[in-house]
Amino acid sequence: MNSFYSQQAGCTVHWQDLPGHGDPVVFIHGLGCASSYEYPRVVCDPQFGARRAILIDLPGSGYSDKPEHFSYRTCDQAQVVVELLTHLNLDAFWLYGHSMGGSIAIETATLIQDRLRGLIVSEPNFHAGGGMFSRGIAAQEETAFIESGYAAMLAAETSPWAGCLGSNAPYAVWRGAASLVAGVQPDWAAQFLALKCPVTLLFGELSLPDVEAAEMQRHGVKTIVIPRAGHSMSWENPSALAGAISGCLSEG
Fold it and tell me: How many CA atoms lie within 13 A of 49 on its CB side?
């Protein structure tokens, strides 16, 4: 586990650099998740092709620090990712982001396009309003969520998500959810469609049909369906996800 100090977040951020060939893929996790928890089994799968992978735990998540003063907005998390990329001094790289991490990856891509080989996002937030989880979290007052809502949500969660959710600070989860509901301008869809690098959208088979997936397909965005998986594709079908990401890198 590696670390650097983020001036943006005012804390130490931890990340893993898993060796392999080719330009690295930087993995950005979603709300209540952690890349150190979610992606080792994806990048170690034979379908990933022994490529170099960088897994960041965003501030508030996993092994990274959890400062109470940080905003945890997607735009500020994107700046942290840019700090990591600058710290690593990479000549070229790919970005992969899932759910909220997809939105953060889109914002990161707009900030650092000159060295970006391509962007792969899986079921990101494209518009303001949030998803089912983020809306339910942001509907509570931050103080109420910190005092009781987070513990109740964690106790009720029976999926593997509970494992990494427990590594997140409750205020980081609430502020991240509130940021997704509030959205950004221009919105993530507009930023995504304006990118000049290759872009790919992944959706779980069980998440379809989906309005935003259909919207992106109308715009000609390459879309890959991960079979036998829904939104949580990294643990529902990690091998298929690994193969889909590797296929995008081979074509790029």
Answer: 17
